[in-house]
Amino acid sequence: MCFPVCHCSREALSFVANSHCYECFQDLRGTKFEEKMGCLLSTPGVAGETRRRPKNIGEVLVFVPGLRIPMPLDFAQPLGDGLPKSMVERLSALRTRIVVMAGQEAPMTTKPRRTATTHGGSTLADLQQVLEDYLPVLLGLVENGNHIKHNLQFCWINQEDGVEETTMSDSWYEVLSVLHLMAVISLSQANLLLLPNTSTDVHQYKVLEECKRASVDIFLKAAGYLDFAVQQVLPQLPLELRNALPLDLTEGVLKALCLQALGQGVEVQLGMAIDSIKATLAVKRRLACEMVKYWHEAQECIMDLPLANGWGEKHKLFIQWKHVEAKAVAYYLHGLILEEGNTSAEIAAAALQAAEEYLKESKKACESFHTTPPLSRNPPLWGASQYLVERIPKDISTKTINWGSIKHEMIMQLAPALPDFVLSLKPDEYQLPLMDPSWNDLQVQNLFRTK
């Protein structure tokens, strides 16, 4: 059962988002809310309004599917007889803040050329903190066999699924949705860090080294949330519920997002290696080959899923593009190393020719991604992407053999295999926080039953 959504002014939303008092939330509901804030109440049948996709999301370095947004939930009715008022109020206050802040943040994460500054009293970091505050309290509904685990019907608006919203009466679904939102927020933060800042010279762009290093940490954190969701949370749901999950939360999409985070982390490391005079060609090649493996595995996870709805289709195209781009870099660096070794000139030339073919394919995949709604565009190039565009056309024209009329398929068949390296980046080892101590106090007082 989902409850009405309040579409009110930014001032009203900011007030609710920053309020910690449940009485304020209660006072803002129903008629009082309408009188005080001039709100228009609408039912979840208008979920499409919340899920409305932007026409243009501007510059994209890190693909972020739209935020899944929780729908308002009245904890008092289903939990009123099973929990003391203070616990119901706490759950309600925390989740209401998430509803409001996620609703504010959703359009901002897709705003063209958005900067990492505060807006309207809500930031990505603020939302992340509220989610972290909510989890320990939420876990009281799922741990220790709590009998009220199935009393609530949690409703979230989807982004990659054709179905606008999904409601489930299992608190583990809520935990899964929270972890997914935390991961997507992290990817949004990484995108903001990696968008180059314009210097005083409008033709010069630079991504600060500290931003690059920080983004790698954020990618690993996002991968940690997603890996834990796949390994530890999905198995908690009964099979029938797992089969009913929206595409946003299916194992394939969660794994693909996890591998994307790792692949983009390696991409940043490769960009830093390219800019470093100390990094050897062998180090750069290893990073490029690892990047190919991450994107290949991500594509394997997502390629057969019916993601043909807005964000879902764009998600597939992003992974395809980055996979091909990674191959172009890897084959180029591999070809340079083969040239320096004892390998025949023909084999080295075949690797470099494959790099050129993958570069052409990458440009087409990039254009396909950016022209698929919602429209997007490349930021100024840096790192591996800049290296590709600047070096491959120039070097390959002087180093490859004249292949004449040999077709693309033949070039790919002649290309040597890339070296197989053990993947170095792993997701952070995330663990759920401890259950809020107030639940233990309730057990001692026998205020709620466990099975």
Task: Please write out the topology.
Elements: E1 5-7, H1 10-17, H2 22-27, H3 30-37, E2 40-42, H4 47-50, E3 56-59, E4 69-70, H5 76-79, H6 85-109, H7 124-138, E5 154-157, E6 165-168, H8 171-194, E7 197-198, E8 205-206, H9 209-233, H10 239-244, H11 251-275, H12 281-302, H13 311-340, H14 345-371, E9 375-377, H15 383-399, H16 408-414, H17 437-444
Parallel strand pairs: 3-9
Antiparallel strand pairs: 1-2, 4-5, 5-6, 7-8
Binned, the helix content reads: 55-70%
| Major beta-sheet overview | 3 strands, antiparallel
DSSP strand count: 9
Average pLDDT, rounded to a whole number, is 80
Describe the protein's architecture and organization.
With 451 residues, this protein is mainly alpha-helical. Helix content is 58%, strand content 6%. The protein contains 17 helices and nine strands. A three-stranded antiparallel β-sheet has the order 4-5-6. Strands 1-2 form a two-stranded antiparallel ribbon. A two-stranded parallel sheet has the order 3-9. α13 runs antiparallel to α14. It starts with a strand and ends in a 7-residue tail after the last helix. The N terminus is likely disordered.
Brief rundown of the structure:
By secondary structure, the chain is mainly alpha-helical. It contains 17 helices and 9 strands.
